[in-house]
Amino acid sequence: MVSGKGIIGLKYLDKSDIEQIVETAFSMRDISKRSVKKVPTLRGKTVVNLFFESSTRTKTSFEIAAKRLSADVVNFSYTSSSISKGETTIDTAKNIEAMNPDVFIIRHASSGIMDLLSRHLKTPIISAGDGTNEHPTQGLLDIMTIRDEKKRIDGLKVVIAGDIYHSRVARSDIYGMGKLGANVYFFSPPTFITDDYASLGASITYDAKEAFTDADVIIMLRIQLERQATGLFPSTREYSRVFGLNEQRLKLAKPDVIVMHPGPINRGLELSSGVADSKEHSRVLKQVENGVSIRMSAIYHTIGEGHEYTGN
Amino acid sequence: MNILVINGLLIDPSQDMEQPGSLLIEDDIIKGIVDPKSYTIKGDTAFIKNRQDKAFTVIDASGKWVVPGLIDMHVHMRDPGYEYKEDILTGTKAAMTGGFTSVCAMPNTRPVNDNKTITRYMISKANEAGYAHLFPIAAVSKGSEGVELSEIYDLVDAGAVAVSDDGMPVASAALLRKAMLYIKPLGIPLIDHPEELSLSKTGYMNEGVASVKLGLNGIPQTAESVAVARDIMIAAETGSKLHLAHLSTRYSVELVRWAKKMGIPVTCEVTTNHFSLNEDAVNGYNTNAKINPPLRTERDRQAMLEAIADGTVDCIVTDHAPHGNDEKEIEFDKALNGISGLETSVGLSLKLVHDKIIDKKQFVRLMSCAPSTIVNLKNKGTFKAGADADITVIDPDTKWLVDKDKFISKGRNTPFHGLELKGRAVMTIAGGNIHGNTRT
């Protein structure tokens, strides 16, 4: 499924694909802990980071991942000004494809762009996020982080809280975790979700107590402050009070609950500093660390299968 | 031209007619129904004898339906201004190939059809082309900008049959009310594209299960129904004729059902797209299924079928909206709205007859009689003696595959490519032009 085709959404992967990518990521993680953080697995391969939307963290994570596998990495960033020269996204990608890369890592502001480009390109694509649709490697690293702590996904109560409607992270998380048997709850103001989201297999609640009680995992999404201007919530103060996660609410969850966040965090809005910095519960930095391993695994499964990856 | 269409099943709801017979056309005017055995017209036994000296083109319509020429009162001909998408020649030829003898062209051309020069240009270009008749719909407001009224009396004098700012709703309730008052003496309808932009502007498809799965921002159904309610209230107050374009939600047709019961002068249309497809057609980010209003839920589609069956819906249209490939094969959010529909409409609409949702006469009423009445096309949509010889011959049973690459229209944007349809127009007669649609 993944090999030679890429990863454009967890909605298209089956359970065994997801498990395999996560398993490989655990063994990839060891590479990042060595003094020489590099294996020759993808020597001679070219990985192109094609980012049509600004990103520092995800792009860096992919770049480090590719370099640890000895691939050559080329970064293309298309700001809105170069897009305004009039070239279509398909033409841009085809031009770079003519330089014979082995895999594209693409981020773009339009939902579904990966499906469109897949029809026009022969080179496999790993999505680094498309519009409000999916961010599959974030979903995979979230699964890896939960597996790391809980040793399972099946049967866990996972709460995803915040702006579900506009979140590609939420969509990849529910697709992936749903396939692995988690009980996912969406907790958000009614302006950030519709009843139709239940069709993804999640339970929807507007009540903090119902959401957080006995939770095994809480994933707080970043609230885009500009949503306030469009009337989706009235103030950061009220959002934080009614829908945010703080130390007191965390007590409703299981004692060994872990708290995750795709970053960047708005401290004091969706997540209190106390929770964000809690050594016991916060796994935010662990997510970032696992992100590199997941992306190594994703690139490996897309273009490197058949090559040894454990060697020095 | 003198034509005798023999052996067909003549269907004309304007005379409550569904009978085998032959149709006599003399000098491009319908003369009457000829008895298939005696070749006489009722009350004129000497009819044929008196015409022995005339030459007739005889068309054998055995096994076919012979109906008043179909009328599509909602098309985008893109001419002037967007001739790369369609022009009046290809558009009217595509119409005729699809079985239409008349089309009403929306004013969102470039420049907008808000003055009589453009209205006259459109009519004369269609006349030169010699295919389907073209009746322009003029802009309600100058430039369709929703600020000042167009010179509507001028436009009607030049040949416009209705006004609309289609593509966009009439911008404000106040402007709509003024326009409805202003047109009242003209007897033309105002065709509104009902959309509350504050609800729709951030969306790209119907807000529902499909949009959730695709991660595309949705357009709630209230974006339409709220505007429908606004429009109906203004029609009720002004008493002017309101025609609601391309309805798509169950609440919209329910509001029209209520309005008709109240005696409010409202008519409405549904597109072939909205009764044939639901929101799932967008799956895979299929931009050919991206239209405005968006394809709705299956429940809404069923409501369209019910409203067509019970007469709440007055007519079927295509909202023929041809676009260039580069405007469709791009990011979903950037892709333009619309489907090239003229050459699939009859096949899709005949499915309603085959599925027994409507009968043959209803089919003809929805696709010919009603639109001719709504936009006051004299001598069209009927076989009454003296009517124009606009005739569509339909083979209701032949199966065929939709092939966009064989479209006459420049617009190849269709989600129906590869679909098998049952039935099509095989011949269209308009203005003395006998257009055989033998293409398969």
Question: Could you explain how this protein is built, in words?
Answer:
The complex is a heterodimer of chains A (312) and B (440). Chain A has 312 residues and is an alpha/beta fold. Chain A has helices spanning 15-31, 57-68, 80-83, 89-97, 113-120, 136-150, 168-179, 208-212, 236-243, 247-250, 273-276, 284-304; strands at residues 6-7, 46-51, 72-77, 103-108, 125-130, 157-161, 183-187, 203-205, 217-220, 258-260. Chain A has 2 domains: 6-134 and 289-304, 3-Layer(aba) Sandwich (Rossmann fold), CATH 3.40.50; 136-283, 3-Layer(aba) Sandwich (Rossmann fold). In chain A, 38% of the residues lie in helices and 15% in strands. In chain A, the strands form 2 sheets. A 5-stranded parallel beta sheet of chain A has the order 1-5-4-2-3, sandwiched between helices. In chain A, helix 1 crosses helix 6 (136-150), helix 2 (57-68) packs across helix 12 (284-304) and helix 6 packs across helix 7. The two termini of chain A are 28 Å apart. The mean pLDDT of chain A is 94. Chain B has helices spanning 88-98, 116-129, 152-158, 173-183, 197-200, 209-214, 222-238, 250-261, 272-276, 298-309, 345-354, 360-374, and strands at residues 3-12, 17-26, 29-34, 57-60, 65-68, 70-75, 100-105, 133-138, 162-164, 190-192, 205-206, 218-219, 242-244, 266-271, 315-317, 391-401, 420-430, 433-436. Chain B has 2 domains: 3-66 and 387-396 and 419-436, Urease, subunit C, domain 1 (Roll), CATH 2.30.40.10; 69-374, Metal-dependent hydrolases (TIM Barrel). In chain B, strands 1, 2, 3, 4, 5, 16, 17 and 18 form an 8-stranded mixed beta sheet that branches. In chain B, strands 6-7-8-9-10-13-14-15 form an 8-stranded parallel beta sheet. Classes of the chains: A alpha/beta (312), B alpha/beta (440). The interface between A and B is medium-sized, with 25 and 20 residues.
